Amino acid sequence: MNAIRSIWRTAPLVQKTLTPSHAALRFLTSATPAITPIMKPVENVAPTAIELDKLYKKVELEMRGIDPAVLLSYSWFCVAAASHLGIEVTKSWALRKSEKERHTLLRCVHIYKKHRVQYEVRTYFRFVHLQRLTGSTCDTYLEYIERNLPEGCALKVTKIECQNKPDHLTPPSE
């Protein structure tokens, strides 16, 4: 009978499908004990100061990658995620030229100095500026976009935090 009571209490679909007689229903509802929460007494706890959330004036995302199409797609993803979270995106742009790094090597190490090979690595950049974020929103957003960072891309985040004026600074007296 205990198994029937536990199924009856936990599964609303079972309640609708079984529909017991009124006598059985009265028995089940009267036999179930009332649920009381278990509370442990808290002793010797000092009140803590409330920690305020950080405020960021501007957050700059710098994305680097070797494939401009992947970088463009990822920047669109970052802007779309920001708009879903209600974050204000002020700028989203790319550098016109890529950064080129060239390496010149000899084909043969010992002789034939005139036979050289040049290798080139291009790095493309995209930037996204976000404004007026709270610390919790910024952490959530950055966690989400970092987890979805594609292969061959790097992300650099620069945060500008708003802080209170220090107490030791006072305006000049006239």
Automatic annotation (TrEMBL):
<dbReference type="GO" id="GO:0005763">
    <property type="term" value="C:mitochondrial small ribosomal subunit"/>
</dbReference>
<keyword id="KW-0687">Ribonucleoprotein</keyword>
<dbReference type="InterPro" id="IPR036838">
    <property type="entry name" value="Ribosomal_uS10_dom_sf"/>
</dbReference>
<keyword id="KW-0496">Mitochondrion</keyword>
<feature type="domain" description="Small ribosomal subunit protein uS10">
    <location>
        <begin position="60"/>
        <end position="158"/>
    </location>
</feature>
<keyword id="KW-0689">Ribosomal protein</keyword>
<dbReference type="Pfam" id="PF00338">
    <property type="entry name" value="Ribosomal_S10"/>
</dbReference>
<comment type="similarity">
    <text>Belongs to the universal ribosomal protein uS10 family.</text>
</comment>
<protein>
    <recommendedName>
        <fullName>Small ribosomal subunit protein uS10m</fullName>
    </recommendedName>
</protein>
<dbReference type="InterPro" id="IPR040055">
    <property type="entry name" value="Ribosomal_uS10m"/>
</dbReference>
<dbReference type="InterPro" id="IPR027486">
    <property type="entry name" value="Ribosomal_uS10_dom"/>
</dbReference>
